[in-house]
Specification:
alpha+beta; Leucine-rich Repeat Variant; six-stranded mixed sheet; three-stranded antiparallel sheet; 9 strands; globular
């Protein structure tokens, strides 16, 4: 307390120290303003902390140097060295912003775009399936009539996404059977800035379903190794490396309220979202798919409108599928939005609506709704899913509901898990061999 009083007194007496304190406060204010006005959050926070820290050290340094009391040499050395370290850190931060040094801050810089080329061979005839590629404007491709293969290019991009999508669509515009394949970017990143070309092969594997039926399912292979398959909960990693630059989640973990502020959904949907909701039932397949993409881009702001449309038309397949695809795509792009999206659900009504989609007879709707609910990781959804799994006679629905339950199971309390015990026993007794494997993660 004596040291604090001594420093406080020195600051009151010395105008230079008051100036240093004012600059420190200004740095904190600038950081906050940048945060709430859409600037680079991490850079603002780091810069603000550096400014405040440096000014505090400067205040201590001036206090010590002007004191008439003898001071240990070690204290003076520490103050000098730490102060110089802060100066060097601020200089490096500035360099990283303006000339792209050092590498840890390079994501803030404009770099020369790089790309990777690839092809997908063994495609089905165009009248059976149409293949494309999508990565938010960073991928493009076309069928080569001479080689009868799909040639594509993927541009390097700084997005938070960890997968690209190989789209597999029916040529029939009346059919909404989108069998998209997720490919983890770790299968692509090592080839950037390389002359090598990706060589993938398309196949339709017979995949056994929980009820015993076998369904032809689109898949991708690199040589003999499978790298993607429609309906997989988790994408297949090719290498143990991050697909995209890691997000500085540590700073956001320290500032959860700021993150929640940034992700808070808007109270009213925009005209664009309203139009996309209406287009979910359009007769043109291309218009419907465009509407789903628009809704997915709306992130958490579009969720209440999507759920309202799904509640209003529970029997409309196009609305249920379009809403489920849009919600799934939101979390594919950024799983950090899961908590914000979960807060928009209107209690048991919305959860039951989405769980009904996850247990639907239609396989495409079932797969998309299940992926969304699993990634949502909502504990209430997990509890309801276990209850539904115990009551149904549909093995495919039971499998999906137990899969969904895994997403938020770890968030349930011990008492809630014990309460679900009777439902788990009933579900286990009715389950087939494939479904029984899911119970290992429901303990």
């Amino acid at each position: 307390m004596g040291t604090l009083a001594f420093i406080s007194g020195a600051i009151k007496r010395d105008p230079r120290l008051r100036l240093a304190g004012g600059v420190a406060l200004l740095g904190a204010v600038v950081a906050a303003v940048l945060e709430f006005t859409g600037g680079d959050r991490d850079l603002a926070v780091i810069g603000g902390l550096f400014t405040v820290g440096f000014m505090i050290l400067l205040a201590i340094f001036i206090t010590i140097t002007e004191s008439k009391e003898p001071r240990p040499r070690l204290a003076a050395f520490l103050v000098w060295s730490i102060s110089l370290a802060f100066v060097a850190s601020i200089a490096l931060l500035a360099l990283s912003y303006f000339i792209c040094l050092p590498p840890p801050f390079k994501s803030h810089c404009a770099t020369r775009p790089s790309y990777v080329r690839g092809e997908i061979a063994d495609l089905p005839p165009p009248h059976k399936k149409q293949v494309g590629i999508a990565l938010e404007g960073h991928a493009m491709g076309a069928i080569n009539a001479d080689t009868k293969a799909f040639h594509f290019v993927v541009l390097e991009n700084p997005s938070k996404r960890s997968t690209l999508t190989v789209t597999v669509r029916s040529p029939d515009k009346a059919v909404d059977r989108d069998e998209d394949i997720k490919v983890h970017l770790s299968c692509i990143v090592p080839f950037f800035r390389s002359s090598s070309m990706l060589e993938w092969r398309y196949a339709e594997d017979g995949v056994p379903q929980p009820d015993g039926t076998v369904v032809a399912t689109p898949a991708l292979y690199e040589n003999a190794r499978k790298i993607g398959e429609f309906g997989r909960k988790d994408p297949i990693l090719c290498q143990d490396v991050p697909a995209v630059p890691r997000d500085s989640s540590g700073w956001r973990a320290l500032l959860p309220s700021w993150q929640a502020f940034a992700q808070a959904p808007a109270s009213q949907p925009s005209p664009e979202i309203k139009g996309a909701i209406e287009d979910l039932t359009n007769e043109d397949t291309i218009v419907r798919r465009s509407a789903r993409a628009t809704l997915a881009n709306g992130s958490a702001t579009a969720v209440p409108s999507i759920l309202e449309a799904m509640r209003d038309k529970p029997g409309d397949y196009r609305v249920q599928l379009g809403g489920s695809v849009a919600l799934t795509e939101m979390l594919r792009r950024n799983k950090a939005d899961a908590d914000a999206i979960a807060k928009t659900l209107k209690g048991e009504e919305d959860r039951t609506l989405l769980l009904n989609a996850a247990g639907a007879k239609d396989r495409t709707l079932r797969i998309y709704a299940s992926e969304f609910l699993y990634d949502l990781g909502d504990p209430q959804v997990s509890r309801q899913a276990v209850s539904l799994a115990a009551q149904t006679d549909d093995e495919n629905a039971r499998y999906n509901w137990l899969l969904v339950a895994q997403g938020g199971w770890h968030k349930l309390s011990t008492a809630q898990k014990q309460e679900a015990g009777a439902d788990l026993v009933r579900a286990r007794e009715a389950s087939g061999p494939q479904t029984l494997k899911l119970f290992d993660k429901l303990k």
